[in-house]
Automatic annotation (TrEMBL):
One of its GO terms (cellular component) is cytoplasm. It is found in: Cytoplasm. CDD domains: RWD_IMPACT (cd23821). The keyword Cytoplasm applies. It comes from Spodoptera exigua. This is RWD domain-containing protein. InterPro entries: Impact, Impact_N, Impact_N_sf, Ribosomal_Su5_D2-typ_SF, RWD_dom, UBQ-conjugating_enzyme/RWD, UPF0029_Impact_CS. Its main location: cytoplasm.
Length: 255
């Protein structure tokens, strides 16, 4: 059910801020923080959410004046109406700027997309192989980003994963799918080690490994992070595309 996936995504990404008021009543809460300000959002999902009815919600922000709070309510309602039939709580929470804007500045920027947000810094290095982060792919509020690196051992693969997960958003993503191929020298010659981990995203890791095999890539690891946006997409190829894009951006296809 879409609302279950939405709750799981919020609980994963906002582990410290998310709270369950009542699973039976489908009531939850979250603390939205920005600098010195906090907004408490509480909501209950009716039985026909999101297909027919919106969630009922309450806001608690003692620092916010009445007019600002009224505008914020209007913005949240507009977001629901503009996305009727879809899960909307995740969108509300991700639009932190609406909650923290100064009086008179609140509004929904309908041109805003996650493509313009830096999910992970480019070419990050942290005591291990250099990691190249691909561009973000957005579809129906789910977000996909590939990461690629040249590696020489399974320990290098572990170092890449550890470095990526220093980023809290990556650590708390719904899926971090991994595939790698490493050519190792042995006393008898060369040995090819190739593995994948789908991290709960069925068939994705095998496809990523197949991508490495088709291009005969060795000593390469590719990771695709997926942040779930509340809508089931199905097999649209975004994971493979994100993986290939990261590999190309890292220049590994030409080496």
């Amino acid at each position: 059910m879409p609302w279950v996936d939405e709750i799981e995504a919020l609980a994963s990404i906002y582990e410290q801020e998310f709270s369950i008021q009542s699973n039976t009543a489908r009531s939850y809460g979250i603390i939205i923080k920005e600098k010195m300000h906090e907004v408490y959002l509480y909501w209950t999902m009716p039985g026909d959410y999101p297909s027919q009815s919106p969630p009922s919600y309450e806001l608690s922000a003692p620092w916010m004046d009445r007019k600002t709070k009224e505008k914020l309510h209007q913005c949240l309602d507009d977001l629901y109406l503009n996305n009727k039939g879809e899960c909307v709580i995740f969108q509300w929470v991700e639009r932190k700027g609406m909650f923290m804007s100064k009086p008179g500045k609140i509004g929904v920027n309908r041109k805003l997309t996650r493509k313009n947000q830096n999910v992970a810094p480019l070419n990050a290095v942290h005591n291990g192989p250099e990691i190249t982060h691909g561009e973000v792919i957005v579809d129906r509020k789910s977000i996909f980003q590939g990461h690629a690196a040249r590696v020489n051992s399974v320990d290098d693969v572990k170092a890449v994963l550890a470095t990526l997960k220093l980023n809290r958003k990556i650590q708390n993503a719904k899926h971090n799918i991994v595939a790698y191929r490493i050519e190792q020298r042995t006393a008898k010659g060369h040995k090819l080690v190739q593995e994948f981990d789908e991290d709960g995203e069925a068939h994705s890791g095998g496809r990523m490994l197949h991508l490495l095999q088709v291009h005969d890539l060795k000593n390469t690891v590719v990771v695709v992070t997926r942040w779930f946006g509340g809508i089931q997409i199905g097999p649209d190829g975004h994971i493979t595309n994100a993986a290939k894009q990261a590999i190309q951006q890292a220049g590994l296809l030409n080496k």
